[in-house]
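Work package 3, deliverable 3.1, input record:
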Amino acid sequence: MANTKMVKEQKPQMSTIKGRLSWLWSEYSVIIAFIIIFIAASVLSPRFLDMNNQLNILMQVSIIGIVALGMTIVMLSGGIDLSVGSVLVLVGVVTVLALNATGSIWIALLTAFIVGSFAGFLNGVMVAKGRIASFIATLGMMAAARSIALYIAEGGSISGEVSGFTAIANNNLWIFDYPILIFLIMTILVYILMHKTRFGRHVYAIGSNEKAALLSAIRVDRIKIGVYSLAGLLVSIAAIIETSRLNSISSSSSGVQYELDAIAAVIIGGTRMTGGRGKIIGTFFGVLILGILNNMMNLMNVSPHLQGFVKGLIIIIAVVFQKRE
Amino acid sequence: MTKSPFMTMNNIDKSFNGVSVLKKVTFHVAQGEIHALLGENGAGKSTLMNILGGVHPFDNGSIQINGEEVKITNPRAAQEYGISFIHQELNVVSDLRVYENMFLGSEIRTRYGFLKVDEMCQKTNEILAKLGVDIDPKEYVRNLETSYKQLIEISKALLHKSKLIIMDEPTTSLAEHEVKRLFGLMNNLKQSGVSIIYISHKLKEIKEVCDRYTVLRDGELVGNGSMEEENLDTITKLMVGKSISQERLIQDHTFGSEVLEVNNLSSPGCFSNISFTLKKGEIAGFTGLAGDGRTELFESLFGYRKTYTGEIKINNQLIKIDHPRKAVKAGLGLVPKDRKENAIIKDLSVIHNMSLSSIGHFERVGFIQDKLEKERFQYYKEKLNIKVHNPRITIDKLSGGNQQKVIIAKWLEVDTDIIIFDNPTQGIDIGAKQEIYHQIVSLAEQGKAVIILSSEAPEILKICHQIYVMFQGEITARFKGEEVTEDEIMSYATGSKREAK
């Protein structure tokens, strides 16, 4: 008896409509914002709701989406990873080389995973063991990884010579292209990792109060290295999709400003810059919001040169709203 | 005293959230005297000084300066009345130069807004010369000794033509020769007609430098007078008084086997030559003044600090602890002081804070089971009387006492043989304090070894079998819990007595 009474008590009690609304807003503001933008978009452009257009949006955000998942973990731990775009290119270039050299797709994939997570591991070691601010450490990695990619590809693009590699990004299951499915699966996996396992719990703890986390006997350094390695691994998955889609990667123009888009999605999704607070589901919708905005501006023929302005505005508005909490 | 009172506080009342902190306190300071303000932690000294410094308003009473009633509503107003407050944590910016610190916020500028560096340096020199010290105004503060930083604050007070300087525990972080220098300076100031209120626990120093004293206890004025006429024992008695709840909560029971042995633990600048042993079922208390090194000692023992020498044996096994995780594995738990900074993870829920250090207890095939966590929390909620309706809210929404209970639950769940409590009742109300004492005692009765660090001697006396007093990083005395008085502890904690070792 007493037990059932307890359970009832624990449900959030919202006596007033106002209270209920403010609770909804604080917990799910990004979803509400998503719905508003979605409705606005469908009113502004009749073509927006078209199924093909919807799938197109998902397809276009899948790469940034996967990168943003890793970025979310890093930012929850209280850090930032500026190297994602450059590491993506480096992974792409090395993967194509491995593919062409061995002719094996599996070896190419393995190479991608190793290169990506190793770059992340190095970031993690610099941050955790070297006590370098994540902004600086990953800024260094950003410059270095891009440079190596440019050197290997001699500044140009390199293309795959093995048929079948393109299938990864261009095949589909029913109406869903593989990249969309990979993005959705990764979202679910990362969600489970962050909310149902001790790794996730420890990341939140470190991001919120590192000293208290250490005094709670959490292996802070190890978790941090894990965080950056995982972000690197997710980047390598994104790199595989990016490379497979066109069967080539450009060492100079691929992955440019991906870090900014990913950080934007994470911030719009409500994750706090200083760590400890945020949700994977928030990032998921943050990514979709950015995708819809891009799509809308294309549908409405907004000059591509102005699209950055709109994106910038949205990020700032998102942060201003979150500040009120 | 023939000197006219420069500043008088009459019948000051003050309460925080309905808890009365000051009751009709009257306090006056004459011109050109050094006045010691004494009392134990929580006696109301800081509140009284914060009222004088314009940090807190008072509820009833009045303040007079030079016989005129004044209203001090903020720190700036206090400064205008000639009152400067030098806090225990010095407010100097290490990365600025001496003169820049002196003029911080009141820089001398030209018509066009540029700084008049030469003029500021010259004025700084004048004041420093007046104080009889020789430092370059252009020196960076980070290159100076701590006492010079204090000096900069004093110079700043003089720059603002202060007539009354409040010094809160100025000597805690000073070496002996620095203390000498400070005292010389204080005497110079006194000669030039400046009054000083001196807050300190170190009675010997007070005897050396102060003219008069005022003692507060539990928010009330219990005595004042001239320093020359009293001896230190009388003053100590006044400070301690007859505590109402001196009653010891522990019964003597037989202890189990030895679980912890510490030999010659030293860490330069923090603590030196610490040796003690601890048995199952025993509660050992470590007490002393702020800065006595006990927190650093046990942070080292717990693996948070790594630069120490000496040996630690747990269950007769020599062990090197360099990470809190190793400490936990070896059987040590730590409820740290300064809950907000060191213990709670404010963005995690109450339940998740409870389970943080023993997450393995709630996992099945690698996944955390919400239901197990919740059930376990219910158990602790009842056992420790944690008041929370919805344990899924973040822990920062709870009161201090309830937060502390959650942290204790966290360590009970880890279930280590030895639990260290650093200042376990910091900032929590009396009811919760009692509950925590009873929890600690029952832990010992269950056979756990417990270590308590506290600067509140009554607390230590209440629940400890064995009491260690620390002073400047060393254990200066060791007592059985029932055979010592608060006065005695005080005299060892202030360094006025030392046990031959």
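Chain B touches chain A through 33 residues (CB under 8 Å).
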